[in-house]
Amino acid sequence: MSSSPGRQGLKFWLNAWLPVAIAVGIISLESTQWLGSDHTSHPLRWFWEAIFGPVGDARWQIIHVLFRKLGHFLGYGALGLAWLRAWWMTLPHSHFFKDAVLALLGTALVASADEFHQGFLPNRMGSPLDVLLDCSGAIALQFTLYLFLRIFRPKKLAHED
Q1: Buried b or exposed e, range 19-50, using 16+ CB within 10 angstroms
Q2: Which of 15, 109, 110, 127 is 20 to 30 A removed from 22 (C-alpha atoms)?
């Protein structure tokens, strides 16, 4: 670890890792029986219909699944960015792609634990496909960040060339 004073203080560690802890906490709260699809359909449908108008039951089922899967993709994408930021800040001689792999591993671990946990809930089921979707979200958002940095902040990545 670097010997710079900023990396030794509690404030630094909270700044680096608290977003990861918050994201994992949010996922843990969402991974309960109370936020299963049987409990989210009505409020999400109300929200949808308030914006777009009435929707039939068959069509709503498709929209509801898409809402929930988009939530997986974006939520775990955000978790992947939080992991990436934490590793980028914490590791000495940090490199984007190495940190991105560590971030993806952290995301995959949380996603796997989440799906495993859901397998024990009466109204939820764990799915390896959701883990794949979660990791895809992390990869997509990390890649988007990489492109952004490459285009708009190339000096942030200069030490990798």
Answers
A1: bbeebbeebeeebeeeebeeebbeebbeebee
A2: 127
